[in-house]
Amino acid sequence: QVQLVESGGGLVQLGGSLRLSCVASGFIFSVYVMSWYRQVPGKERELVATITNTGGTTIYADSVKGRFTIARDDAKNTLYLQMNSLKPEDTAVYYCKALRTESYWGQGTQVTVSS
């Protein structure tokens, strides 16, 4: 059974940091391109960051460049998102996604940044 389980969300003050984790099971994690998305109510889900299956390439949304870092540990089947210098506009539910010929999504973790 395929599962992606996010954790690490919570309430943080402006300028604070959080590290999100996404633990994968039920598929060969290392061959999948992995991404973090986020969504706020009433808006479309937006891509935050992507890391290739080799880990050699990372891509970030302009809004998070220089503040967020995506990483993966294939030995632990885990995807990470280090979020620094958080802003209120980063408040959203954050989802991880695995993509190859098919895609899988996690259930999401809430991040709230207070001003």
Strand-helix topology:
Elements: E1 3-7, E2 10-13, E3 18-25, E4 33-39, E5 46-51, E6 58-60, E7 68-73, E8 78-83, E9 92-99, E10 103-105, E11 109-114
Parallel strand pairs: 2-11
Antiparallel strand pairs: 1-3, 3-8, 4-5, 4-9, 5-6, 7-8, 9-10, 9-11
What's the shape?
globular
Strand content: over 45%
* Overall pLDDT level: 97
Give the % helix. under 10%
Specify the structural class: mainly beta
Q: If helices are DSSP runs of H or I spanning 4 or more residues, what is the number of helices? A: 0
**Distance separating the two termini:** 40 Å
Largest sheet: 7 strands, mixed
Low-pLDDT segments:
none
Strand segment count: 11
H/E element string?
A: EEEEEEEEEEE
- CA radius of gyration is 13 Å
Task: Provide a brief overview of the structure.
0% of the residues lie in helices and 54% in strands.
What do these coordinates show?
There is one protein chain. The chain has 115 residues and is mainly beta. The protein contains no helices and eleven strands. It has strands spanning 3-7, 10-13, 18-25, 33-39, 46-51, 58-60, 68-73, 78-83, 92-99, 103-105, 109-114. The strands form two sheets. Strands 2, 4, 5, 6, 9, 10 and 11 form a seven-stranded mixed β-sheet that branches. Strands 1-3-8-7 form a four-stranded antiparallel β-sheet, with no helix packed on it. A hairpin with a 6-residue loop joins strand 5 (46-51) and strand 6 (58-60). The mean pLDDT is 97.
